[in-house]
Amino acid sequence: MARTTSRGTCLLCDGTFSKAGMTRHLQGCLQTHPAAGPTSPQAQLRRARVFHLVVQSRYAPGYWLHLEARASARLGDLDQFLRDIWLECCGHLSAFTIGEQSYSVSPMDDFGEKDMRAELGHVLEPRLRFTHEYDFGSTTHLALKVASERDAEYRREPIRLLARNNPPPIPCGVCGKPAVVLCAECCYEPDGWLCKACARKHECGDEMFLPVVNSPRVGVCGYTGEADGDWDLECEDESDDDE
Ligand SMILES: [Zn+2]
Ligand SMILES: [Zn+2]
Ligand SMILES: [Zn+2]
Ligand SMILES: [Zn+2]
Q: Which of 106, 127, 151, 169 is 20 to 30 A from 4 via CA?
């Protein structure tokens, strides 16, 4: 299947770069953009060992993130960060797999699993690849890579976002305009992804609709992510489209 080049935005300089070029861009951009924004007092900066992490959806690689994480952050911090930005729908279990070792939010001793208290600095190293799974029913699979490690000025947050993919263009299956909702019943068919106008005519009913959000969990298990009210079709609405 032909794909357009995935592009994303660097949050340090607001520039747009290809997925393939972002790691190299950030290596330079991190040198010229200090860790703190202009409003943060220098007093809050600390010197710390940090990792540059690249995260992508294993089966939908158009969804990707670049993160900077302190070596003293815990796997649980990283899990929470990924839940907040991409994953959380209803508190499912999750786990990292690093080498042969599984680190779970709910470890089962019988399977030799560990919890997520381990510090990143103790389990990660440059060029290491590892995985994360959220929800062991309708699983969202992520692949992570340690792009580099360095000493840096750092703010208090254990993890910060450096760059993120721009929303992949998803056309309405009916008319080709950008899709804003998907039908949970029909989302495995192209015409289950719909623009607002076509969604109003979709026969499954608006209770089946979920917002198209910039996350590999789009359409899964009622995930609405960071969607604002925009995707709400207001079908039975009295106010703005009574014609
Ligand atoms: Zn930049
Ligand atoms: Zn769920
Ligand atoms: Zn349409
Ligand atoms: Zn439908």
A: 127
